[in-house]
Design a protein that fits this description.
Strand content: 15-25%
Radius of gyration: 14 Å
CATH class: Alpha Beta
Number of domains: 1
Order of helices and strands: EHEHEHEHEH
Strand order of the largest sheet: 2-1-3-4-5
Largest sheet: 5 strands, parallel
Structural class: alpha/beta
Shape: globular
Oligomer: single chain
CATH superfamily: Cobalamin-binding domain
Amino acid sequence: MSSHNGESEMSRQHPIKVLLAKPGLDGHDQGAKVVVRALMEAGMEVIYTGLRQTPEKVARMALEEDVDVIALSSLAGSHLPFCTKLKPLLEEAGLTDKLWMIGGNLPAQDHEALRRLGFKGIFPTGSRLDDIVNFIREHVK
């Protein structure tokens, strides 16, 4: 059952595991599904939560599933309040060593606040799928 694709997967015993969540009242998930497919094609294991997740649910699932990456896809403009609520929950759950990412409708003026909250990967709408995959590979050892 060993299917190594060479690159950075060799040092890992299992595929990179990504939780991809749609926070809040956002009703659109086409973009998220495209990203899920790209990550899976890159050999990652992806848990997609579907729409309308609460910060509590995201933190609980990330902990239960023992993921390497906690990724949010946000188009509804509620990313700052959501991430502000999520940060202490992730800290409480001991998930600060995981890679936190967010993509979607993210105005440039919010990027610094998101970084301060602990989100290392910030991918505004229109980001290239390869860039997202490569960012994860570089930051998850």
